[in-house]
Amino acid sequence: MDQATEKNIHENYRRTYIELLFLLLLTKEDMYGFQLNSELKKLSGGVFDIKQGSLYAPIYRLIDNGYVSEKKVISGKRRVLSYYHIEPDGYKYLDYLLEMDRTVINAVNTVKDIICYTPGGGKEDSEDK
């Protein structure tokens, strides 16, 4: 597989999980955008490191859907930070996303086990099990 394809697959997977992970982080405490990204990068071992320009689209989707609220706080003389807070509907949405994640992962593993696929492209003989 070429690098461009790998990068595209990686980006699609990350995009799928960003809202879920942002909501998970907000269950811990209210956070501002840069803080969300920093925590996510640290806790994911660098797998999730969102570019500044891409950071706010998922946050705004969560706000627009009523899952997260925003509170502006003055920090210093002129700096304004937007803190994000998970709302009751956000907890419901998070529970739904986590359940969907479990369902999809379980289904993938079930199919993989039925097919007897092992990473690296090898195929186990199902009669040897």
Structural account:
The protein has 129 residues and is an alpha+beta fold. It has a single domain (3-117), classed as Winged helix-like DNA-binding domain superfamily/Winged helix DNA-binding domain (Arc Repressor Mutant, subunit A). It contains four helices and five strands. The protein has helices at 3-28, 33-43, 52-64, 88-115, and strands at 31-32, 68-75, 79-86, 117-118, 122-123. Strands 1-3-2 form a three-stranded antiparallel β-sheet. Strands 4-5 form a two-stranded antiparallel sheet. Helix 1 packs across helix 4. It is globular, with a radius of gyration of 19 Å. The model has no long low-confidence stretch (mean pLDDT 88).
Regions with little confidence, pLDDT below 50 for 5+ residues: none
Radius of gyration: 19 Å
Binned, the helix content reads 55-70%
Order of helices and strands: HEHHEEHEE
What does the largest sheet look like?
A: 3 strands, antiparallel
Q: Tell me the CATH superfamily.
A: Winged helix-like DNA-binding domain superfamily/Winged helix DNA-binding domain
Question: Strands of the biggest beta sheet: in what spatial order?
Answer: 1-3-2
What class do helices, strands and sheet pairing give? alpha+beta
Q: Could you say what the CATH topology is called?
A: Arc Repressor Mutant, subunit A
The pLDDT mean sits at: 88
Which CATH C-level class is it?
Mainly Alpha
Q: How many strands appear in the DSSP assignment?
A: 5
Beta-strand proportion: 15-25%
- How far is the N terminus from the C terminus? 31 Å
What is the overall number of helices?
4
Return the domain count.
Answer: 1
CATH architecture title: Orthogonal Bundle
Which outline best applies? globular
